[in-house]
Design goal:
- This is 3-hydroxyacyl-CoA dehydrogenase C-terminal domain-containing protein.
- InterPro entries: 3HC_DH_C, 6-PGluconate_DH-like_C_sf, FA_oxidation_alpha_subunit.
- Pfam families: 3HCDH.
- The protein is mainly alpha-helical and 159 residues long.
- 58% of the residues lie in helices and 3% in strands.
- It has eight helices and two strands; from the N terminus they run αααααββααα.
- Strands 1-2 form a two-stranded antiparallel sheet.
- It starts with a helix and ends with a helix.
Length: 159
């Protein structure tokens, strides 16, 4: 999903809007906030490893976004800056405007026929559904209930 989050950001969707779309769909944390909480450096490492292992299956946005953020020290919440700026004792967070220049360089054109808010929500959740189906087909999951349990404990929700 994170690779698709990068793609959606590259298409110009506002970070706060994307967080709102994911939480309003049922995810416990906004997708952009999640990258900051996990760590941009960790997301970069995972994107590289999954890209090598699975190729196009884990395609999406340009991981150069994460590479450039890490090179500028934007590691997320732990460094005080990621997609957002974090301040000790302050609950609200502001956008890190320094990320705007990186996004501008990596900007892509969205496909207008699949760019509505609902399209974005369904696209992100469909990634999980497709992976769950493949896990069932490959015998990684014995039953759909195992996938449900994994979603509840792993995502904090039932997509």
């Amino acid at each position: 999903m994170m690779s698709e989050v990068i793609r959606i950001l590259q298409e110009g969707v506002d970070r706060k809007k994307l967080d709102s779309l994911t939480t309003s769909f049922g995810f416990p944390v906004g997708a952009v906030t999640l990258v900051d909480e996990v760590g941009v450096d960790v997301a970069k490492h995972v994107a590289e490893d999954l890209g090598k292992a699975f190729g196009e299956q884990f395609g999406g946005g340009n991981p150069e976004l994460l590479t450039q953020m890490v090179s500028k020290g934007f590691l997320g919440q732990k460094s005080g800056k990621g997609f957002y700026i974090y301040q000790e004792g302050v609950k609200s967070k502001n956008l890190n405007s320094d990320v705007d220049s990186i996004l501008a360089i990596l900007k892509t054109t969205p496909k207008s026929e699949v760019s509505s808010d609902e399209d974005i929500q369904f696209h992100l959740v469909t990634i999980f559904v497709n992976e769950a189906v493949m896990c069932l087909q490959e015998g990684i999951l014995a039953t759909p209930a195992e996938g449900d349990i994994g979603a509840v404990f792993g995502l904090g929700s039932h997509p």
